[in-house]
Amino acid sequence: MDYYFVNPHATPNFAHSTHMMIPNPSSEFILSDYLMLDDICIDHHDQESRSQSTESLEKVTFNDVNQEFNDATSKNNNIKYKNGIKRNKGEAGQKIAFRTRSELEIMDDGYKWRKYGKKSVKNSPNLRNYYKCSSVGCNVKKRVERDRDDSSYVITSYEGVHNHEIPFTSHCSQISFVHSDAYN
DNA sequence: CGCATTTGACCTGCGC
DNA sequence: GCGCAGGTCAAATGCG
C-alpha cells in the first residue's frame, strides 16, 4: 500500500492550507494517482503546528470517503444536455475526496472558489456546499460537507484538474508532497 | 456599484 | 410514469 504524506515543514501555514492543496496538472502528482489507491494516509507530523491550530489531518479511509462521492457522481459522468447546451460532467475526470478535522468549512487551498449551490443531503443533518473554481475556463468543482457521523470532520471532494496556476502562491508553492514506500 | 452568496426552482438519473 | 435525491441555474439579496 502506498501512502502519501504532506510535508508539514514546507510552510508554517500548513495546518491551514496544505491538506486542502490539490496538485496541479504540472505537478508530478496526478489526482488519478489518489483514486487508484485503496487507502490514503495524509499524516500530520508537526505537533507544534497542530497545537497552534484547531485543525488536524486524520487518516483518510479512502473507500469510505470516496464511495459516497463516486456513488453520487458516477451517474453524472456522461454528457447531459440542458437548453441545448452540452454539459459533459465526465470531462472533468479526476476526482478526489478526503476528510479533515476542522472547525472551518471554508479553508484556503490557494484557489479562488465561487459558491453556486447548497443542498441538504439525505441521511445527513448537514448541508452540502457546491463550489466552482472562479478562474475563467477552469471547470474544477468542489463539494464541502460535514461528516454525517462526526460533525467535527469536513469532507471535501474535488472534481477535475485546474488548468491554471494557483492564484496565491505565497505559501502553497512551498508545499511539497512526499511519496513514501515505507508503508508498502 | 460590482461581486459573491443565498436560495428556490429546475433538471436529470435512478428505483419502484 | 412517478417520486425521490443529487446537482445546477439564476434571480434576488447582501456586503464591502
From TrEMBL:
- Indicate the segments forming the WRKY domain, all copies: 102-167
**Would I find Glycosyltransferase among this entry's keywords?**
no
Which PROSITE patterns has this protein been placed in? WRKY (PS50811)
One GO molecular function term of this record is: DNA-binding transcription factor activity
At the top level, the lineage of the source is Eukaryota
The UniProt keyword set, sorted, is:
DNA-binding, Nucleus, Transcription, Transcription regulation
Gene3D superfamilies per UniProt: WRKY domain
What is this protein's record name? Putative transcription factor WRKY family
Query: What high-level taxonomic lineage is stated for the organism?
Result: Eukaryota, Viridiplantae, Streptophyta, Embryophyta, Tracheophyta
